[in-house]
# Entry
Amino acid sequence: MPRSVSGVEMRKRQAAHIEAPPQAPGQPRPNTCCLCWCGCCKCLWNEDRLERSERQTCTKMDSIEATEEQYPSLEEVLSWARSFEMMLRSLEGREVFQEFLRSEYSEDNLLFWLACEELKKETNPTVVEEKARIIYEDYVSILSPKEVSLDSRVREGINLTLTEPSNLMYEEAQFQIYTLMHRDSFPRFLNSTVYRDLLANRRRACLDT
# Structure
């Protein structure tokens, strides 16, 4: 019959393991933990730790790949110069244009246009009313620091529809801001370092491939 290990002998073995001399350089350290004093490689804690590490590595790689995929192609960047509408319909185009507008302190024009686009998609009356109110307070009210430039006729029309808001109540105001960005901001954007640097970067990338 095998001899049982006493509590005293067990503590001696634990102490001997803890007080063991450090590993020589170049030798791998055992995978030890507070739950597995023997350094067993089959410890569930170690397996879980390794699995978490692999998941984190995969997540980082996925994130890097997703970031790389967000770069617009040279053809797409060139197409923006031919069509303001095409640039606005491109996620990357809007982001670059917004960066430029921010440098000119006119970012709110694009944000207003985007908010109106989102409102158009809504069909729930409660949501429409809430979003319409937020747009008014953020971009139409004369008390807002982000007020966009609208003529008095368009502004008066908006005020008349506030009692019964609809998902199209800002359509005329949105077109007015669209025209302002197209005629005023867009030509300067095409001549800006923001756009030119991106275009040069995409051309270099094509030559490297």
Notes: Confidence is low (pLDDT under 50) at residues 28-51, 53-68. DSSP finds ten helices and no strands in the chain. Residues 138 and 145 are 8 Å apart (CA to CA).
